[in-house]
Design goal:
Chain lengths: 120, 113
């Protein structure tokens, strides 16, 4: 059974960096058949895909254009987790952040979600 | 970006009755080389992450009750709950994974009449 456990701060100051981690159990971040995504949800923006990392002979990343200049998603094979770093945050980045796994077309495993508030 | 528009925004259905939610895509999500529609349906209850119900437009996820079904192709899709149960009260989302950025519909809130 795959489980995704998220960790990170729930409060970030404007202009600072939001950093979250998603620990994977029951699968490998290096899997050749899965991708590892970050999604956020807010009342104003709904569900918004932010980006993904995946391994297919080499590491690949894709990011949403809306955050592309500010986002880094990194896999860590030694800890079997992946992380989200979102720089220069504003109150618009407030929301619930989820990590998810995609495999065979389905987004089948989700982290528990972390509410991140951007406020001074 | 592919825009998904769901209808209606909210829906109230009596227990045991059929519920139908529609999802219209701004462009086709049918990949011609494998004849698969890159569209899924998700259920979200308060305080929980979304849960996959349907993927490839019509494939039911393991463990999902068979009262849930998905249909449609290319740009028009439907999620049907054949006989509404109390535990089906939730917000339902369609989602496309045909093109990046992956996008979601705005959600349909389903309630009991």
């Amino acid at each position: 059974q795959v489980q995704l456990q998220q960790s990170g701060p729930g409060l970030v100051k404007p202009s600072q960096t939001l950093s979250l981690t998603c620990a994977i159990s029951g699968d490998s971040v290096s899997s050749n058949s899965a991708a590892w995504n970050w999604i956020r949800q807010s009342p104003s923006r709904g569900l918004e895909w932010l980006g993904r990392t995946y391994y297919r002979s080499k590491w690949n990343n894709d990011y949403a254009v809306s955050v592309k200049s500010r986002i880094i998603i990194n896999p860590d094979t030694s800890k079997n987790h992946f992380s989200l770093q979102l720089n220069s945050v504003t109150p618009e980045d407030t929301g619930v952040y989820y990590c998810t796994r995609t495999s065979d077309g389905k987004w089948d495993y989700w982290g528990q979600g972390i509410l991140v508030t951007v406020s001074s | 970006d592919i825009v998904l528009t769901q209808s209606p925004d909210s829906l109230a259905v009596s227990l045991g009755e059929r519920a139908t939610i529609n999802c219209k895509s701004s462009q086709s999500v049918l990949y011609s080389s494998n004849n698969k529609n890159y569209l899924g349906w998700y259920q979200q209850k308060p305080g929980q992450p979304p849960k996959v119900l349907i993927y490839w437009a019509s494939t039911r996820e393991s463990g999902v009750p068979d009262r849930f079904s998905g249909s449609g192709s290319a740009t028009d899709f439907t999620l049907t709950i054949s006989s509404l149960q109390a535990e089906d009260v939730a917000v339902y989302y369609c989602q496309q994974y045909y093109g990046i950025p992956y996008t979601f519909g705005q959600g349909t809130k389903l309630e009991i009449k």
